Amino acid sequence: MRAAAGARRAADGVPLVVEGRTDAGHALLTARGELVDGCASVLARELDALPPDTRRVEVDVSGVAFMDTAGLQFLEVLEAYGRRTALPVATRDWRGQPRRVLELAGLVDHSCTPDQAWSILRETSQLSNTKLRTVAEAVATSATGTLPPVEVRAALRTAIARHTG
């Protein structure tokens, strides 16, 4: 196994570290800390440092202790990288509060890809006539016990069923 560029941390003090290693074209990135503002750029730098022979990217998020709506930007960066490079990308091992946020959104139990997660959020926004940012905030806030509005919950159920079969 070959280490990638090592630990990446945003210069502005984002409490997230992403470490990478590759083996036979499979890149395993390990994220530790919090998915908050600035976390997407930490992931983007690690993805940009992957070797050109990378054929698959997996992000282990078991070390992520907290996630706010910026965690959705983290997923968007991963999904965009997969589209741009035509490589399969995935996350694994969501735990604690971040898992709870994604469970409430219905994104973990169905093992969504980042692309499916964004499709679900976008469709939920459209079906409920609610801004995407508001949907994301409602999903993130729901981890504290505040449920999203009824129309957002209904739209989430519809979008999840459509995108996860």
From TrEMBL:
<dbReference type="InterPro" id="IPR058548">
    <property type="entry name" value="MlaB-like_STAS"/>
</dbReference>
<dbReference type="InterPro" id="IPR036513">
    <property type="entry name" value="STAS_dom_sf"/>
</dbReference>
<dbReference type="InterPro" id="IPR005561">
    <property type="entry name" value="ANTAR"/>
</dbReference>
<dbReference type="InterPro" id="IPR002645">
    <property type="entry name" value="STAS_dom"/>
</dbReference>
<dbReference type="Pfam" id="PF13466">
    <property type="entry name" value="STAS_2"/>
</dbReference>
<dbReference type="Pfam" id="PF03861">
    <property type="entry name" value="ANTAR"/>
</dbReference>
<feature type="domain" description="STAS">
    <location>
        <begin position="16"/>
        <end position="142"/>
    </location>
</feature>
<protein>
    <submittedName>
        <fullName>STAS domain-containing protein</fullName>
    </submittedName>
</protein>
